[in-house]
Write a structure and sequence with these properties.
mainly alpha; 57% helix; binds fe (ii) ion
């Protein structure tokens, strides 16, 4: 008696899941679709998606630097920084998604995987090991500065090219949250006394 199987190899409908499929990619990285119903010309969308991919690669890296810092922090401020770093990680994770979805809606292709992000980002690679708190904070602040600088340049360029949507996203969703996070980090680098102040000198 012949054994009947549910074939997964035909294009006919079947209950058999099709495993291990592959095909050519739909759209290469670095391109935009020819037209989108957005009233934004292809060259503008190409320029904006290229710039946004740079911002995305740097933001993914900053996000991951926050998680590294969250896990590896040590010392007397462990608890508050452990929580603060994870809060900022969560906020950066939202920003990553916001930037990535704008790239796609402009007809582009997002950078996504760690190896590709590592090639593109301008944020220096930290060591694998643990570092002291002031060094962790300095790395995060330096990374923020790279992003803040690009935000200001990109916001201006977006306005010049007639893309206020990208301008608004960059200013409202990336720049301003970044400026706020910089404040929270910077205050941890103020050398304020923890227990005892220097007494005022008596005037003669
Ligand atoms: Fe955690």
């Amino acid at each position: 008696m012949s054994k009947k199987t549910v074939s997964g190899n035909s294009h006919k409908p079947s209950a058999q899941p099709r495993f291990h499929q592959s095909a050519r990619e739909l759209q290469p990285f670095g391109t935009v679709t020819a037209t989108m119903p957005l009233q934004l010309e292809e060259p503008v969308r190409l320029e904006m998606t290229e710039q946004l991919n740079q911002l995305l690669a740097d933001t993914i890296t900053l996000r991951d630097l926050y998680k590294k810092s969250h896990w590896q922090v040590s010392g007397p401020t462990f608890y508050q920084l452990h929580l603060l770093f994870d809060k900022h990680y969560g906020e950066q994770n939202e920003i990553v998604d916001t930037i990535a979805e704008r790239i796609q809606l402009l007809g582009g292709v997002t950078i996504a995987m760690a190896a590709d992000v590592a090639e593109l980002t301008r944020i220096p690679r930290p060591p694998k090991g643990r570092e002291e708190v002031p060094v962790q904070l300095s790395r995060l602040l330096d990374a923020h500065q790279i992003i803040i600088t690009q935000c200001r340049e990109l916001a201006e360029l977006a306005n010049k090219l007639g893309d206020p949507g990208t301008n608004d996203l960059v200013v409202s969703d990336v720049l301003r949250p970044s400026e706020l996070q910089v404040w929270f980090l910077s205050e941890h680098l103020v050398n304020a006394p923890l227990v005892e102040v220097e007494p005022l000198k008596e005037s003669a």
